[in-house]
Structures are given as C-alpha cells and as structure tokens.
Amino acid sequence: MSLRIYNTLSREKEVFTPLEPGKVKMYVCGPTVYDYIHIGNARPAIFFDVVRRYLEYIGYEVTYVVNFTDVDDKLIRKAEQLGTTVPEVAERFIAAFKENIEGLRINKASLNPRVTDHIEEIIAFIAELVDRGHAYESGGDVYYRTSTFADYGKLSHQNLEELQLGIRIGVDERKESGQDFVLWKAAKPGEIKWDSPWGAGRPGWHIECSAMARKYLGDTLDIHGGGHDLQFPHHECEIAQSEAVTGKPLANYWMHNGFININNEKMSKSLSNGITVQEILTRIKPAVIRYFMLSAHYRSPLNFSDETIAQAENSVERIVNSVANLKHRMSVAVSEPDESVPALEARIGDIKAQFNAKMDDDFNTPDAITAMFDLVSEANLYLQRPVASQAALNLLLEAFEGFNRVLGLLETEEELLDADIDALIVQRTEARKNKDWKRADEIRDQLSALGIVLEDTPQGIRWRRK
C-alpha cells in the first residue's frame, strides 16, 4: 500500500508522490515566540514530528523546516510589559520552546529560521510582488492586492465575494479592498524597525513563511503543515504571495491538525483555560503526553482532561512493562532458538504490516497504536513460556524499537541509566546475603525515590519504572 495523505486543498486523500524521489521537503509553521507554548501548540509539534519520523522510517530523507516568528505585535507588547527589547523576548522564549520540544521527545527540525535573520529576503519578495502589480504601498505600509490573484480562497474554500461579506464596517482606508492584507508595516515611534524601499518598518506575519520556505525548500514544497486555524488567513495568504511570484504550487500536500479542547471546552484566553507545556511537563510524563496526542486521528478534535490523561498513563504503562519484561528475560534467555521462533516471526511480520498500513492511511496513529498493543499481547504471551530464547526476545524488542522510532512512546533516553540501576540491585542482593538489612533497605529506598519498583519473579529480581 502506498502512503496516502488527506490534502486540505483537494479535501481528498491522495497518493503521496514527492517532487524528488527519496526526498521530502516539509515546512510546518512554528511559534510566535512571545510566551511559553501551550498544549494546543504541542499537538502539531508532536504530530508533525511523527509524520517526519514515519517518512524517515519508510526510507525518505526529510528536510524539515519549522520557523520562529521573532518580530510581531505580540513580541512588541511583551517587550513593553517586561521593560526589555524584542530580541531579548525572542531569545527567552525560543530557549523555552527548545526546552519544551526536547521535553516532549520531539526530534530537532532540520532548520529553525528566524524572521529577523531574513529581512533582506522578505523585502526582496515584497518588492517582486509590487513590481508584478500584486502589491501596493500606502502610507508607508505595503498591502497585497487580493483581486489580482484569482485563486485566493482555494485552500479554505472561500471566494472573494463571501470574504467581502464578512468584512466589518470601518475597513482601513489605506487599503484598496477589505480583503487586502499587510506585507510590510510602517514603524511606529519606538518600535523595532528595518529600512526598506517603502520606509522604516517590519514584515507582516504572512510574508515571512513565503520568503523562508522559498529560500530553504524552493518554489514548491512537498508538505506544508500546521494547525487547523492556520488555513485562513495565514496559509491562504502564503499561497497568494508565493504563487503570484513563482507561478507554481506552494505545496503539493497541505495538512492541518484539529483543535484541542480542555475538559470539553474550547481552549481560549477568555476562559483562561490554557495550559502551558512548561506546566504539564512537571506532572505528566512525555510518553503520556505523546500517547494522548496520538490517540485520536490528527484531523479530529481532542479533549484534554484528567480522565483522558489517566487512560493514556495506563496504556503507556502496559507498553513500558511489556518491553521491560522482555529485557529482563533476556538476562536468563537461552542462546538456541526454540521451535516457536518461525511462527513468532510470521506473527510479528503481520503486526508490522498492519502498523505500516495504518500509518500509510493518512497517518492513522490510533490504529497504529492498536498494532503496537497487538505486539504487547504477543510479547506477553511468549513470556509465559518457562524458557525464552534470545532470538525470539530480539525479534519482539526489535519490533518495539521500530514502532518507537515512529511514535516515540518509550523512554529510550532513560536506558542510559539502566546499568546504574542494575548495579544498585546487585549491591542490594549482596547486602541481603550478608544480612546487612540496613544497607539493603537504604538501596531499596534510594531506588524507590528514583521511581524504580522492584519485583520478585521466578527468574530473579526485576525492576521497572513507576
């Protein structure tokens, strides 16, 4: 089965064919770095991380670009509130973003271009639009003339007449039309600014992505992604800007994830129900957050609540325990393959095929997770055998590792600590043999404080993380 992606532009699933065989150019709109990212920002960050992981899993070389909007009205207001500068605000929250991304086990993007590093390219892009008659200067601002782009509205499936009806009374008189949008903003006194052919100012929001995507990925992208709320106006405006200049599609596949609700209510500032990633990482494990985000199809809404997080915690624990049991049995496994290995290998092959088929169907992560639980069931069934072979255990562990490369649900970075934990357990065992109960209890307490649970099994003491 070939990979099929639901294209927002066509409203259909389409077979994925990259522009260049074996390579994928992917651009996802990143944060405006004026504050800590919230759980709504985490959904596209995690989902598109999985998209990128799966593309690499099936053999593609992916160039993955996520931009930083580091100059904007919101940053200017934040700098005023904090009594600092826009660059200092940007540095602070870019650092926080990177820390949060690492905390969520999101692989680093190939590039994180910043707006302020690309003012020259942005000005050149705007100048090209002006020269072609798609943009005009008015009072130091520059606006995009939407009437010159016949396809304006094709992504969000709106037309100019409908958009005109939605324009409120009191349109800015500097605009020729209510639907026109700003490309360059004239600087107000005291604001951060750059020189341009139209006077000192700074870029509008939409133009930055057109300029940076073109610089790093060319005229046409394979995949352009972001949250559902970016379809209009942001991505619609990107299309108008880029395609008016290049005459080519900005992206062949447009992908948008659904919203997150908090306790069945829309997340909004007016309800004060936003939750930052900074905050949830203090009380919820990264694997649980990732599981929660992937437990519903990416285009569907998702509800964050104590109940849904508890369900995710239980599910992750099942996977983690199964893998821990496999690793524990490896220490006493026999080197000779047993008679069950060929049949086990065939069953694992079927599960892998199921996993791939679900991911090939528009990145259906809920059903891919179901395949991972089929692997859990297979592992638990095999572990009931009194004697396990290394060959069988390796087959199961390798399958888990493959799925984890895509979903990122197992805490692989903590495996570096396994040797230290094993060493403490050996020390505790020796202390018990020597009837040094005080030392044995101290080690157990130390492990407990680290979140390590000791369990007696027929094969000896094993441990797992809480």
TrEMBL record:
Which of this chain's residues are annotated to bind Zn(2+)? 29, 209, 234, 238
Q: Which reaction does it catalyse?
A: tRNA(Cys) + L-cysteine + ATP = L-cysteinyl-tRNA(Cys) + AMP + diphosphate
Q: Which SUPFAM superfamilies match?
A: Anticodon-binding domain of a subclass of class I aminoacyl-tRNA synthetases, Nucleotidylyl transferase
Provide the GO MF annotations for this entry. Answer: ATP binding; cysteine-tRNA ligase activity; zinc ion binding
Output the CDD domains linked to this UniProt entry: CysRS_core
Q: What class of enzyme is it?
A: ligase
Keywords in alphabetical order, please: Aminoacyl-tRNA synthetase, ATP-binding, Cytoplasm, Ligase, Metal-binding, Nucleotide-binding, Protein biosynthesis, Zinc
Q: Tell me any Pfam family this protein matches.
A: CysS_C
Q: Which residues form the Cysteinyl-tRNA synthetase class Ia DALR domain?
A: 354-417
Its chief place of residence is: cytoplasm
| Motif annotated as 'KMSKS' region, chain positions | 266-270
Q: Which cofactor does it need?
A: Zn(2+)
Q: Which NCBIfam families match?
A: cysS
The protein's name in its UniProt record: Cysteine--tRNA ligase
State the organism's lineage: Bacteria, Bacillati, Bacillota, Bacilli, Bacillales
- Tell me the gene name: cysS
